[in-house]
């Protein structure tokens, strides 16, 4: 069988990992402040990195409203465990990130799905759900270059969600790991964290350096109200004393030296090229596929013809030497005719063959 071409994993291929920049940053971290890098910290993580992140966000954010975590997935788990109790209602987008759905299921929450549109969650459907008697404790939103859907939440919808949070008292978890993985021409929109400043809305923002440096650094962060960050940092300290201070020291050196911005610029050009290759190949080989062309991030969400079965398609695709993730993995129910492709992991030269293999598997399934 031919070598596997995998559109399944949401991670960049090895040629996009900034090994030399990370090596140099590690050397500086261990030379300039070895005590910070090699000692225990506190639950908030690396304090200078907290301050840098606050300055990066702007809009009144201060360092005491930021805590650094071992990746944004851990940040989400800590937040859910802190805010939610068994039986609480949580609104999730449909589709949504599979691990978020799993975490919320394990916590025993009541998950209420609201459909995504091309510009993000259907806010009118959310309002109707509230009018029908649902009382969400938290609304989970992936605001930029959605995983898996690729869409970006419009500014009008961001503002309306902030208004609804203030009106109904629910938390917005703004899950935003792809915010800086933005391609040329994509508009930068205000975060809901920024829009909530000076209002009664309750927003907790999370992001990650897994997408702007590398997945292996496992450095993410939370930003939100100071009192909630303080409580979360206390829980973190009681759980693991401090997050990985060496990894955070390396990331901080990349941030303050300009290495992070240089890497973002380089990787975004490469990822945009991969996105364009996938979009072109889909037009050539699977013209029935409908999708949002993402302005950044890693993913496309394909809707195939009515009656398609992507879970059944997947083993046939693997026989052809190609992998993806079937749509039901990202849904509370349904998703049979959909699938997720990650363009981050496949160099442009391999994309046409990879998409052709999916097309051949689809032809085999339908024959």
Structure in words:
The chain is an alpha/beta fold. Helix content is 44%, strand content 16%. The protein folds into 2 domains: 5-16 and 261-366, Alpha-Beta Complex (Aspartate Aminotransferase, domain 1); 19-257, 3-Layer(aba) Sandwich (Aspartate Aminotransferase, domain 2), CATH 3.40.640.10. It is built from 13 helices and 13 strands. The strands form 3 sheets. Strands 2-9-8-7-6-3-4-5 form an 8-stranded mixed beta sheet, with helices on both faces. The longest helix has 27 residues, at 259-285.
Q: How would you sum up this structure in a few lines?
A:
The chain is an alpha/beta fold and 367 residues long. It has two domains: 118 residues, Alpha-Beta Complex (Aspartate Aminotransferase, domain 1); 239 residues, Type I PLP-dependent aspartate aminotransferase-like (Major domain) (Aspartate Aminotransferase, domain 2).
SS-derived structural category: alpha/beta
Percent strand equals 15-25%
Task: Order the strands across the largest sheet as they lie in space.
Answer: 2-9-8-7-6-3-4-5
* CATH classification, class level of the largest domain: Alpha Beta
Count, helices: 13
Could you say which overall geometry the principal axes of the C-alpha atoms support? globular
Low-confidence stretches: none
Q: In percent, how helical is the residue content?
A: 40-55%
Mean pLDDT: 97
Computed Rg: 21 Å
CATH architecture of the largest domain: 3-Layer(aba) Sandwich
Could you say how many structural domains there are in total? 2
């Amino acid at each position: 069988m031919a070598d596997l071409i995998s559109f399944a994993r949401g991670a960049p291929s090895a040629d996009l990992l900034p090994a030399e920049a990370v090596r140099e940053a590690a050397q500086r971290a261990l030379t300039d402040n070895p005590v910070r890098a090699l000692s225990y910290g506190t639950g908030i993580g690396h304090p200078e990195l907290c301050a840098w992140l606050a300055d990066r966000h702007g809009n009144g954010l201060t360092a005491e409203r930021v805590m650094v975590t071992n990746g944004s997935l851990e940040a989400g788990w800590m937040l859910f465990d802190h805010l939610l109790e068994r039986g609480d209602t949580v609104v999730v987008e449909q589709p949504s990130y599979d691990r978020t759905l799993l975490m919320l299921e394990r916590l025993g929450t009541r998950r209420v799905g609201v459909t995504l549109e091309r510009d993000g969650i259907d806010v009118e459907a959310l309002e109707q759900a509230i009018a029908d008697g649902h009382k969400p404790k938290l609304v989970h939103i992936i605001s930029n270059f959605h995983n898996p859907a690729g869409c970006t939440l419009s500014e009008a919808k961001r503002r309306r969600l902030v208004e609804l949070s203030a009106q109904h008292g629910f938390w917005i978890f703004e899950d935003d790991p792809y915010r800086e993985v933005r391609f040329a021409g994509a508009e930068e929109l205000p975060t809901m964290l920024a829009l909530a400043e000076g209002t009664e809305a309750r927003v907790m923002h999370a992001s990650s350096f897994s997408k702007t440096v590398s997945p292996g650094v496992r450095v993410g962060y939370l930003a939100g109200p100071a009192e909630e960050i303080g409580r979360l940092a206390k829980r973190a300290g009681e759980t693991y004393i401090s997050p990985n201070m060496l990894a955070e020291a390396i990331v901080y050196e990349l941030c303050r030296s300009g290495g992070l911005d240089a890497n973002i610029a380089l990787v975004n050009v490469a990822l945009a090229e991969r996105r364009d290759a996938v979009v072109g190949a889909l037009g050539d080989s699977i013209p029935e596929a409908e999708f949002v062309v993402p302005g950044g991030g890693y993913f496309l969400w394909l809707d195939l013809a009515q009656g398609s079965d992507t879970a059944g398609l997947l083993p046939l695709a693997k026989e052809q030497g190609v992998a993806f993730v079937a749509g039901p993995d990202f849904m509370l129910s349904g998703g049979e005719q959909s699938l997720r492709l990650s363009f981050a992991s496949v160099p442009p030269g391999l994309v046409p063959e990879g998409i052709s293999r999916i097309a051949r598997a689809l032809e085999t399934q339908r024959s």
